[in-house]
């Protein structure tokens, strides 16, 4: 994932998926679900990673996973809009991600982003020195065909 700290500094990180699946039916409908282990979040800075695990942010002891359930896919220019429900911090809210997909062999790489993710919608409102609670978040996921 990629976001910014204090409005300016780009922060790259990783988080491990514990499960996930995507399916396109013959009629063109999409299904998808992704579950992330919140304790696996790593930004490369131990102090920041530890703070993200606390009740100020993700409270991963109480809420160990984040889940995205895909409900619709629609064309948006040269990209796709992925509409779904994001369960985070014990609350579920609708989100729409703009995604670009590239396919190579039996692997698909999806780069999805949301330009204004207001984390207060999920009850995460801590901000240091007036930092924004709105984030632009970009997520990259690689999917491979299930045998």
Verbal overview:
This protein is mainly β and 147 residues long. It has one domain (2-144): Lipocalin (Beta Barrel), CATH 2.40.128.110. The chain is 5% helix and 62% strand. The protein has one helix spanning 46-52, and strands spanning 2-5, 9-12, 14-24, 30-42, 65-76, 79-88, 91-104, 107-118, 134-144. The protein has a seven-stranded antiparallel β-sheet. A hairpin with a 5-residue loop joins strand 3 and strand 4 (30-42). The two termini are 27 Å apart. The mean pLDDT is 85.
**Which whole number gives the mean pLDDT?**
85
CATH class: Mainly Beta
The fraction of residues assigned to DSSP E strands is: over 45%
- Tally of domains: 1
Main pleated-sheet profile? 7 strands, antiparallel
User: By CATH's scheme, which homologous superfamily applies?
Assistant: Lipid/polyisoprenoid-binding, YceI-like
Helix-strand makeup class: mainly beta
Q: Widest sheet: strand order?
A: 3-4-5-6-7-8-9
Report the helical percentage: under 10%
Rg, Cα atoms, Å: 16 Å
As residue ranges, the low-confidence spans are none
Order of helices and strands: EEEEHEEEEE
Note the overall shape.
globular
Number of β-strand runs: 9
Write the layout of secondary structure elements.
Layout: E1 2-5, E2 9-12, E3 14-24, E4 30-42, H1 46-52, E5 65-76, E6 79-88, E7 91-104, E8 107-118, E9 134-144
Antiparallel strand pairs: 1-2, 3-4, 4-5, 5-6, 6-7, 7-8, 8-9
